[in-house]
Structure formats: C-alpha cells, structure tokens
Design brief:
The protein is α+β, with helices and mostly antiparallel strands and about 800 residues long. The chain contains 27 helices and 14 strands.
Length: about 800
Amino acid sequence: MTVVAAPAWRSHRWWPWLRALLPVALVGVALAWPIAAFASTIGFALSNTLGFSILTGGAVRFRVYAKAGMDAADIGRVALLSWAGLWGGVIVLFAVALVLDPAGLPWLDAIAPAIDRGLGLALLAAALGLLFWLGRGGRELAVRGYTLPLPSAPIALGQLAAGFVDVSAAAFALYVLLPPDVVPGPAAFIVAFLGAMVLASASHTPGGIGVFEATLLLALQVPATPDVIAALVLYRVVYYLLPFALAATALAFAEVRNAPTDTGPVRALAPVGKALAPPLAAGLACVCGLVLMASGVTPSFDARLAFLEDWLPLGVIETSHLLGSVIGVVLLVLAHGLYRRLAEAWRLALLLMLAGAVASLLKGFDWVEALVLFMGASLLAFARPAFYRRRRSLGALLNARWLLVVATTVGAAIWLGFFAFRHVAYADDLWWTLAWDGDASRFLRASVAMVAVVIAAGVFLVLRAPVRPPAASGARDVPDAVRRLVTASPNPEATAALYGDKQFLIDPEDRAFLMYGMAGGSLITKGDPVGDEAAGEALAWQFRELADREALRPVFYAVRPTMLPTFLDMGLAILKIGEVARVPLETFSLKTPASRDFRYAKRRIEREGLVFDVLPAAEVGAVMDQLRVVSDDWLQHKAGKEKRFALGWFEPDYLVQCDCAVVRREGEIVAFANVLRGADKEELSVDLMRYRHGVSSVLMDALFAELLLLGQREGYRWFDLGATPLTGLADHRLATTWNRIGTTIYRHGEEFYRFEGLRSFKEKFEPVWTPQYIACPGGFAVPQVLLDITRLISGGAVGLLSR
C-alpha cells in the first residue's frame, strides 16, 4: 500500500521539535496531535525503563493508535520511522562529537585524530546526501513487496534534529551530574555515552541497568567512587524511574477515563492492570535481581558489618552473601516466566524476593535493599490474578535468548566487581578466606555461584526432556459421547478419535468434540472440531484458552478452510500444508482414458486369481493374525517407523472398529485396508492400507479401484484419497516465506518423499482438490511448531522425511 503525507501537519508550528508526530504525519493518518504525543511519550517512557521496546512501548502505541482508528500497517510504519529518527539522531551526534573532539578519550588516542575527524565528516556528509536524495520527493523503500514511503527532506530533517536534541539532552543531563574532575570534554563524553547507550539497548535488560554503567565507567576510565555512583543513581531516577512512574499513572488514568460509564474505577483498571502486570513484574524481578547482584559484587558498609559482628556469627554473613547473589541471578531467570504469566514463576519470584530481603539484612544490614525487595514482593503479591498459566515443565520458565541476556548481565556484574576490587592483590588463598573484612573473597565466591547458576540453567535448557505425547496403543479410553459423534459425522477423518492416543474437549451438551495431543511446547489438534458447527467453534476457543493457561502454543493441524476466520480472530497465522484429493463418486468411471491403469490392474488381479472382499467389523478380529503378517511384511520394506496421531497404525483394538477391505490369494490375505465410512453416505475413505511385496505389481492400483467402485455401489458421494503434502502452494516471488520454502521442498525433495509421484498418482482419479492448513502462532514460533507436529506424528524430526 502506498501512502502520502497529509497536508494538515504543515499548519502546526511545533512539528520540527516533536519527533513522535512526524511519522504520524508521514503515513497520512488524520490523527489529533495530543493522541500521537501521548502514545509516543508513554511508549518511550515504558520501553526505556522496561526494555524490550517492541513488546512494551510497541504494545502501548498499538493500543492507543488502534483506538484512534489506525490499522496495524500504519502503526508499524510510525514505530519504524520513530526508531529511525532516534537512531539517526544518535549517528549525527556521534559524527559531530568526532569532528569537534576526535582525541578526547584515552582509548581513541591509538587512532589518529585526522581519521576520527574524517569518519565524523563522512557520516555528516552521508546524512546530508540522504536529505538531498529525499528532497527530490516520492521516495519509497520496497522490501519483499511491502512498500514504505520515506519522509520528505523537511520531515527527515525534523526527525534527525529531534533525535539529536533528545539524545544530546540525555547525555548532558548525566554530564552535569557527574563530578567535573572525572569526565573529559563534552564531545568526548558524548562518544562514551553513545557507546554505553548502544550496548545497553542491545542487552535488552530493563533500562540497560548494569550494562550502561559498566560500559560508561570503562570508557571514561573513572573509578566507581561514591559521588560517581550517586550521579548515576540520580540520573536513573530522573531519566528512567520518574518518567516511568508518570507514564504508568497517565496510562492508568486514560484507561479509566475511556472506560464505559457503567464501570467503576476498580473494574475499569482491572483488565488494564492484568495486561500490564506481566511486563511490569518481569521488570520488577530484573530490578530486584540486579540490586542483589550489584550488592554481592561491591564492598559492604563497614559500620553495618561492625554492628552485625556483635549479633551474628561469620558463617551467617558468608552464607547470606552467597545466597543473595544466587537469588539475584535466579530472579533474572524468572523474569522470562513472569512475562509469560506463569504461576510457577510468580510463586518462586515471590518467595525469592522475600528470601532476598532477609539475606540482605543478614549479610550486611542492607536495609535499603531489603526494603526494595520487600516492596517488590508486596507488589508481586498484589498482581496474583495476572499469573494464571501452568506448565508441566519448568523449562517454560526460560529460553535460549533470555539465558543469553542473563549471562551477559552476570558478566557485567562480575566486571563491576573486579573494577570495585581492582586494588586487591588476588591470590589462591583469597578464594577460601573467611573474614569480617573479606569483601573481595565474598565477591569471588559470589561470582562463581552466579556463573554456576547460569551454567546449570543452560544445561537444563539443553537436556530438559520434551513433553511426551500421550501413550498410544489404546492407552486412553474413548468417551461414549465421542464414539457417538464419530458415528454421526459425515467426515470419515473423525475416526482418528478412535486411535486411543488423544485427549478430548467435549461440548457440555455432547454436540461436538475436539481431539488433540501435546508435544514440546505445543498443544496440537487433529483436524477441525467434530459435530455441531457452533459448538465446535466454542470448543476451538476453549482449546485456545487451555493452551494459554498452560503456556503452550495452540496449533490447529490439518484443518480445512471452514474455520479459518475463527483462527484469524484468535490472532493465529495460517499456513497451507497441502491439499486433500476427493473423488466425486457420482461421476467416477473406470472407462475414462485417465483410468486405463486401474482398468488394467483390476483385470490383471482377476487373471492372477486374486479376490477382493469386504469384511464387516465383527469378522476382522478372526483374521487379525493374517493382517499382522501382511503389515509386518509391508513395514520391512518401508523406511522409518509407523506414523501416529494423524494416521492410523496397526493396532488390533482400533482395526476391529472398522470394516476391512481385503485381497486374497488362495484364501490367504495378501493386502488389506480398513474402510472409514462417513454418516449419511457422504464420504468413504481408508486409513491403514498395506500389502505383501512380491504378490503383484498392480496390487495397490487394483485395491484402490475396487474401493472406489465399492463406494459408488453403496451410494457414497465422495471418496477421500487423503492429503498430498506441500501441493498447491503459491509459487511466486511475492508469496510468503513459508510458501516459497514449501515449493522448494516439493520440487527438490523427491529423494526423501515422493511429493510429485503421490500427486500424479491421485490425479489419475480426476479428484477435487481441497486445501489443508495449519493455524498456529506465527513468526519464529513456526519452525518449533513444525518440529512439535513431527515429534507427535513420527516420534522425531527424522520421521518427517520417512516415506
């Protein structure tokens, strides 16, 4: 979609200074400037303090802008252009600093000032060139078919100026707070400030706490004296905590004001608080954890230790110090689980904050730390209703990306400790020294403990056992209501409910059911709900809520187009996984040119003395031993293991519930297929089809021909030939990434799976192709969803490539 700038913004005098309003003007949305200013101010205040700007500030912008009538595409453009304006200002400020004072920092002495100044001038020239290029008008950025209109030169200049002023003001606020004898000139300080700002942003820790301070002190090469620490703390209060408190208050006030008139303030705030509680609790856990970690790697107050010396043994001090540092790292780990609303994370974080408060008092009478932790625990306890998800595996509390953030933070804390104790002469006996004045020894032991926690978390993340799918082989009884609904369903695929390996959601009035299994971090359905359409849609939403409570990914596997609008309403991505071939039996005939292979196969097996027959379900048990011999012979000639969940396998308890088509030679069964019958003569299908090798080269063709003729004789409307993977996907350069990957596998994956051969075989029946889909969370969750489905069906990723 191509958009143009609305002319209304030019009438306002404040536009060059308000960075947030310029992107809104560019996308051409008629939006009142107070709304844009409110969304931007609140968004920046929250994202600056909590980190994860896309999830925190982005969520606030989306909520405010969406209420004002902007769609998701325009909101994304506004966020992208705001981000570009900020970092464009950072680059310009960096260039100016290099030009004005290229040798102001000690670590820049190794580079000639002319080179530094040349780099700064090059960056400024690039910025001017970009403005000149944009000044010609009508510039657009096109990426994979998505068009983003670029700002005109005046708007781009305004964004760069606003970003420049924004970052400059933040830098000089800290510059005037720091003692004048520890900082270099303004230009050199800005270079160090920008480097610390970039690393803090990349760390994704709340407010870049720890990373920002450590990087700045290292770049400036100044000691962590009390006046320097006080300046950094005051800067955080002014630049982070105060705006955060004002933004949270303003957001709550706005939600109450915009709530329906028939709801009181408490009821109006309840959903808002529940929505904001997880990210706020995650940020709170990070703050408490960082407080404990920083305390564990810095010197204690001598006066407080002297006070405790009269009351507590040294062992209590040492143990409390070590536990405080460990608790700090664990709180960082738990922040991920709090963000995901996990009840286990909430309980553990609450207990650890209280334990940390006690440890702070015992290790050095750090009453300020204890007060912060106790207040954090109180706020967390108040937010209990927001943490309702349950997981059977504690592995849901952590993922690899967050563990990397935790490891980076621990590394920064250890560096801070070495910086604080840089005057200590380190020796082997320092590790084991227990003394009231042994702060350096306690720091070393705390560092080892923190690293051990990170390593243990990493090992647990790698080795944790995946959630196993339910046991097969009839291990789970099928409810009578499910059996009745399967019998009454016109879709024979509903018979998959009888495998004995699934769990069920059943409508309270027994009008519909939904079958599902679990693997990895996904809850996976098999097909659409079975039964009444309205009751089935309600069950789909119930399944979505179940996955949300369990902190699992909801996956609707092998569904047809009927319920796609519902899945889209759930916010799920839709992936086409193939097509189902259905033969209209009213028009089917073996006399057409396309059916000549099947005519030949039918006549040939008759000449070879092979006889087709259909056994009623009541008689299948009597020939089960013969069927097993056929199945075992078939499996010996096939790669991989038997598939499950979505496909039937040789299980006597399941096979005796269906009629069975057999081919005999001299009374001995040499091929069979269990027959699945839809209600009201709607559709006929087969599930498990197997034959003995070496009997006849046309055995399968003949068996299919006989089955289609059987359905036609019995008056069925359709015969379901089953799904063909990865067929019918859009093959276009502008198609989705999933479609392009699928078509590539379809074309070049014949070595592993007969994609085109299976499609060509089914085309001989002149079927009607019906698309089949997966509905699941999108983005980076898709590969994990596909692996979980593979695990559920095949018992591992290798099974996906098995024939």
